[in-house]
Queue: 4 jobs
Job 1
Amino acid sequence: MGKIEDALAAVSFAEEGEFNAATEMMKEERRVLLAVREGQIDIRTLKYALNTSRRVNADLDILYVSANEVTEPLMARFLSELQEKGVFYRLIRRGGCLKQAIIDYTNSNREVIFVVIESSDTLDVDCAGRDTRLTESWKNLKCPLVVVSEAAKA
């Protein structure tokens, strides 16, 4: 019903010649989720998420898994850069298991079009055992997962 109401409102704006407003109302909200763990952040991953979100015209959500409330310097600089460039973002702080945090977030935020992570090696840190429900949920992740990592050296 909400989408139909939005479409009808957009038609009303278009009829009055307000095409930009009509277009904005019909624009579907899209988000890129950058999921990082404190102490395991690489600038390349941050830049990849930023550039990709701009390229696909999506807002940036940053899922920051940390044991404390202090933001590490690299992340603080990145957030400042986002503000300077006028990029809309949301910083979401969580504790515990990164994999579970990603699953929970994507299940409750359907507008996430894909998830960007640093390395698959860090996903299971702080996860309690190898819970089969967590593994099954991970296999059924609601969106694509992009892993940004350094190429293996020969």
Note: Residues 2-15 form the longest helix (14 residues).
Job 2
Amino acid sequence: MTTEQLTIGEVAARAGMTPDALRYYDRLGLLPPATRTPAGYRLYDRAALDRLTFIRKARALGLRLDEVQEILRVADQGTPPCEHVRETLSARLAEVDARIAELESLRATLRRALARSRRLPLASSCICGIIESETTEREER
């Protein structure tokens, strides 16, 4: 029985990504080497499609490609990567929480600058008094 072989366009469409993304993942080593036709075209099997679907879902969870690559490396060694995935998700959640805190701080700064800008006169002696009157964290230190 022969295994179904899919062209790059077919496997990309089934995996919900572009052929360029598939080629990129291939270059990064996220996929086992594809078989090639005599003309040099890549052919992928069902396992490659399953792996691409996994990569797409991991990316949708916010995992970086290096993190996905490490998870796949653990799985390829025959070890269930679920504990590693749990640790990776926990670390990513901490990074997202920190980034949200940074963005909330930026939002507060922008709101203060906008409110202050409404009280400032238009100045022709500088580029823009709204920005130039702002005190940055470095200046405060």
Note: The chain has two domains: 1-79, 90-141.
Job 3
Amino acid sequence: MERHDRLTPEERARITEIQDMIIERYVEQKEALDDRKRALAIEIGFEIKELRREVEIIKEWASV
């Protein structure tokens, strides 16, 4: 299990903010799929991937 106790309050806040954004994007992606807007759903999927990558970068900085 990764340790995140080295994260600053700002980094923890940013991760929480990003996680909230990811949840919102998943909801938007589901709505796009329900509306048969596959291209939009794929685009949102890429946004989710980028947000997750940002979280991992922040965690990597904290472990240095």
Note: The two ends are 16 Å apart (CA to CA).
Job 4
Amino acid sequence: MRILVTGGAGFIGSHVTDRLIAEGHEVGVVDNLSTGKKKNVNREATFYKMDILSPRIERVFKKLRPELISHHAAQMDVRRSVADPLFDAQVNILGLLNILENSIKYGTKRIVFASSGGAIYGEQESPVSEDHSTHPQSPYGVSKLCGEYYLHYYHKTYGLEYTSLRYANVYGPRQDPFGEAGVVAIFSQRMLRGEQPIINGNGMQTRDYVYVGDVVEAHMAVLNGHLHGIFNVGTGRETTVNQLFRHIMSITEAQVKEVHGPERRGEQFRSCLNASRLHKQADWEPKVSLLDGLKYTVDYFREVLK
């Protein structure tokens, strides 16, 4: 199959690209390298350094004629979306529309959309299913939910099939430790460097941390199973930021303290996803435990820092 991965030089997109190539697909990668890294791009993929907002992206569609789009290119920083909602909407809404318009024009059959469960649902009382009400508390969550509505529109109007994967908090090798997103990467690298990480707020906020390898398996499960619609991708288990900090401190053997800073605007307190729909329809479930996944991630950053 001819597949275009947007954001394929980034954290999740590059892992998805690796797996697609391993499965024998012809893969093109579009990435503007604003946060992604060229070294992450699989050598067997055709790379196009390009912004998804650019009108030049039509050339990629005309050349590759992708049958499927794996759309991971995004502005994914919740805090930046709060500070600059216009930029967030330009990338996450107008960028998606540019992809969708070219998909219709050049005969793309299907799109797999990297969405966000935590940001779309808003505050939660327990692991939430896909039927949970949506009350995003940040412009990032609003833009991702808006993207799902556009996918539904293009499906009803043009027959473009779609699968929206609402990711929990994905972590693992290649995650960016320098931005505001990616607390596992930030804590890991700072502790390995002997630097003091800062926990935002009281650290009792919870997240559902899912390993990137399990996310790739979810992507392949919906692809190979020809599943359509909306699916949560998470573990169903909550971990506080304080607990996460202590796990990473133990793994790195860092001599640091639990230092707390101010709360951040736009951050919700609890987030946890029920992925039973994906389990029932695709026999998918997360295989990597949090402790194992953290060890794999810390080992990766140890190698990076050598």
Note: The domain at 175-207+238-272+290-304 is CATH 3.90.25.10 (UDP-galactose 4-epimerase; domain 1).
